[in-house]
Amino acid sequence: MIENSNDTAPLNNQDIKTLLASYFPDTSHYNEEIIQEQIDAGEILLSPDKILPYLQTVFFEEHLFELQPDLSTRVFFTNLIDDIPDTTKEEGEDIIDDAVTIEYEPGAYLKNNDSFVIAPLNPAIGNARIRACKLVVVRFFMGTIAVELGCTFRSNEMLADNTPALRLDFPTIGRVNRNYRPFRVKVVSGVDAKLTILRPIFDSIQEKTHQINDVSAMGLSFQMLTNERNLEIGDQVSICISVPGINDLELEGVVRHFCKARDKKGALILCGVQFDLENRSLATDIERLAAAIQRLQLREIAEKTAGLSGVRLIK
After folding, report:
1. Does domain 2-177 have CATH number 2.30.110.10?
2. Considering only the top CATH level, what class is 184-305?
3. 193-203 tens-digit pLDDT
4. Which of 5, 108, 203, 268 has the smallest number of CB atoms closer than 10 Å to its CB?
5. What does the mean pLDDT of the chain come to?
6. Which of 201, 218, 200 is nearest to 257 (CA)?
């Protein structure tokens, strides 16, 4: 028997099969031997100590969540955010020392294995839909891997800093899908990886350079302000990528998709571009680019998590 991630009641084989069938119907044909093999290999996640490092990875590496309510075909987008304790003093309460705020570690609430908090969903219709759903699958990507976590909606909240948020119960089950897509390197906001659109030229764009969100051998996505979208799916673009430590790289590509997201500054749009690689030399340059970003990424994450207790990131 295996213990449930949210309580002490053990899960038997039938419980596990029921959870898998509920959140991941395509695993319903698995027999008990295959299920046990995947649990042992870390492909099926059932306990808090297995699931928590994935949530911490999402938080510290600033991954975008895909959210799927009740296994619907429509996917919504959001980010995992912090839940900093409220230190506001009510009348008659003892004075609270400023050390309370100082002692709080980023993402510490996740270690309670009770719940996690996400920003409002995009498109916005998802914020109403999630309140009535029975189960929620959240998904994020690491390189070639898709990690999916099964949980339930708990409440619509206003956090201590007056940030609107949705609270989900700590995941009951999770699974790891390997080779889900080409390897991508996620770029955290502290890494100075920028993109400039050389063609077409837009006089109305507020920002001439854009923060890169992630990059793979096949393409990348970058951030745009919601009020400056000038591109359309199918547009041919010429871009220049600038990353500290390597020469600027000019590439041709095609706009493939847009999705709405949020970061600490507010709403934005992620624009996905597929590269048009004319020769192997360009492909090699992309590999060097991804490696350089990954080095900067690792350095940034190491600085963020230095001195924090109980934080394990998945690599």
Report:
1. yes
2. mainly beta
3. 999 998 887 66
4. 203
5. 83
6. 218
